[in-house]
Amino acid sequence: MRGLILLAAVAMITLAPAIAQDKPTVLIDVGRPGDRAIPIGLPFPKGGAAASQELYDVVRHDLELSGWFRVLDPNASLEPATAGIRPGEFDMAAWRPSGASVLAKTDLVDADGKLRTEVHVYAVGGAETLGAKAFSGAPTSVRTLGHRVADTIVFAVTGEHAFFDTRFAFVAKWTGNKEIWLVDADGEGRRQITRNGSINLKPRWNATGTALAFTSYQAGNPDLYVADFAQGGSRRVSKRPGINTGGAFSPKGDLIALALSLGGDAEIWTIEPLAGREVARLTASPGIDASPCWSPDGRQIAFVSERSGGPQIYVMNADGSNPHRVSFSGSHNTDPAWSPAGDRIAFVSRDSNFDVFTVGVDGQGMTRVTQGMGDNEDPSFSPDGRYVAFSSTRSGGAHIWIASVDGRHQVQVTRGEGGYTNPNWSGHLAW
């Protein structure tokens, strides 16, 4: 698991903010992602650093992924090449004919073996500064710098941080075996995590992004493992006879809920995440119970159960009490994922294809996220609950897509060869 140590080092690049901005004055009504795209001017970075094109590409791609913005041609303004990025160094009137509502100006300077970038965000109509920050990092940190710049822009306009500091864990068979991989939230920076030459399935992050639970057949049985990014390596935490699948960390990280068959139908149990000691059996119903996921406050667990016939989504208290059904449309509903906002559960329903839906935790207000676009499976939410990610075959091979929770904004994240399955979205990670 040497790759885990390398990943941790890359994820902890130190970037120093120089211009404080705790909470912006939001002057633009942005609605929800996908409601409408705000036209934003994003001129090419000043400063002349060799990595300027890469920084620009990262920032532009992040803004378009978010669904908040429509990035204008960088040459859309009438300003001269000598215009600066700070207040007083350029004329805002040169940007008004472009139709931009927001303007984000950046620079990138290579000095003393480090890269330094500034970003200044303006409301074009009122010629007001919405926010500004500066960051620095190693010459290899240009993509991280770009993500930080993009997050500053999103925060300045919406008052909310974006998801650019997150990653997806997923399964792919590119080496001939199903292994666990990671990729950044923009589809770049792909890294292999497991290399055991076996079948590895269903990676699930803990709340801090320091560990992944997954099921592996490397010892001949579907056992539950935990990959530890802080310490390096992986450990087997459940090797009970039968299946040990669907491991999900509790929000506090003190428990893992999973499905164990123990010679009979699969039921939901909780175990300790280190020693794997059994803590409690939560279900005891006819038919299979599987795929547990925790509510954000740790008080409830959603899961799949066949107790009413076909698989349906149920919710119970964390001690197993008060199980009740929350999916009522369709005869085959699986893969629940609880929104970090706490109000909705995403799941997959099979008709002629597999599609993603969300439903209120009370079983009311079902919303369809995908329709008529290939098979869409394994949903998981962004840290703010505004987006849901899933694996989709709509463009050919399986790729990771994200959609706003109402389905208006849908965009493909990964490119190139397909085969991205079982995606799971991390929380915010260290820059």
What can be said about the biggest beta sheet? 5 strands, mixed
CATH superfamily of the largest domain: TolB, C-terminal domain
Percent range of helical residues: under 10%
Order of neighbouring strands in the sheet with most strands: 2-1-3-4-5
Strand content: 35-45%
CATH topology of the largest domain, by name, is Neuraminidase
Radius of gyration equals 23 Å
Under the CATH scheme, the architecture of the largest domain is 6 Propeller
Terminal CA distance reads 22 Å
Estimate the mean pLDDT confidence. 91
Give the domain tally. Answer: 2
User: How many helical stretches?
Assistant: 3
Number of strands: 29
Highest-level CATH class of the largest domain: Mainly Beta
Structural class computed from helices and strand pairing? mainly beta
Q: Which regions have little confidence, pLDDT < 50, spanning 5+ residues?
A: 1-20
Q: What form results from the Cα inertia axes?
A: elongated
